[in-house]
Amino acid sequence: MHLSNAQRAQVLTHALPFIQKYTNKIVVIKYGGNAMINEELKQAVMGDIVLLSLVGIKVVLVHGGGPEISETMERMNMKSQFIDGLRVTDKETADVVQMVLAGKINKSLVNFIENIGGKAMGLSGIDGHMIKARRLDDIHGYVGEIVSVDAKPILDVLDKGYIPIVSTVGWDSEGNVYNINADTAAASIAGILQAESLISMTDISGLLRDKDDPSTLIDKVSVDEIDALIGEGIIQGGMIPKIECCVKAVNDGVKRVFIIDGRVPHSIIIELLTDEGIGTMFLK
Questions:
Q1: Which position has the higher pLDDT, 27 or 231?
Q2: Domain-embedded: residue 15
Q3: Is residue 213 situated within a structural domain?
C-alpha cells in the first residue's frame, strides 16, 4: 500500500495521543506461536517493538518457543509428550528447554532487534534469579509453577535503555531448571512490574462468541464476566488457562490485558496506537 506524505503525516498525528498515553510506561508483550516461526511476521513484530521503544514506551518481551523445542528434540531422537497441553519435562528435556529458549531463540531475537536499530538485552528467568519455581506436579516433571518473580534484572535493563527479552525458564535452590509456560510467566512479570498493558500474541483473533466465526469477536471483557463465559462454553479447552493468565494480570494491577492475533502484521501497533484495536481487551 502506497501512502502519500500527507497520509503518512495523518497516521502519525492520529497515533500521537496513544503514544503520549504510553510514554515512559511499561508494556509487556508475550510472543510465541506462528508469529515466531514465520520470518515475515517476525520482522513485523520486531519492527513494532523497536518503534514502540524509540517513541519512549518501555517494552518487555517475554517469549516461549514450544515448536522449536519439539523440533530440536526430534533431531536429538527424543520424544515430546504432552499431558493437559503441558510438555512432560524430565531432566534431559529440561536441558533442551534451557538450551533452546535461553540460548538459541533468546539470542536470535536480541540479534534481530539490534540489526534493525533497536537495543536489546537477553535474560532468562535464571539470570539474577528472576523466576523462582517449584514443580507443578509429579506427572509433568520439571514443569514449573512460579513461586516468586524478582523484577530487578528487568528494571535494570530498562533503566539502561535496552529492551529486555526474557526466556521463560525458572530455577530453584537445589539447582533445578524449570520449563515455565510463557503466558503464566508474562502475566506474573506484568503484575510485578505494574505494567500499563500486557499483550498476549496468539494464533487466534481474540475471544470469540462462536469459535468458528471471526465476526463474533468480543472486543472488551470485564474479569467479573469470565466465570459466566466459561459456564456458557464460550471460553473452553486451551483458552481457559490463557484467559486465567489475563485475569491474574488484571487482578495483580495491570491496567489492560489484550489477546491479539499474532498472525496479523503490525497487530501490536494496531492494538496500542489506534482507535480500532484488533483483539480482546480484559479490564477490572
A1: 27
A2: no
A3: yes
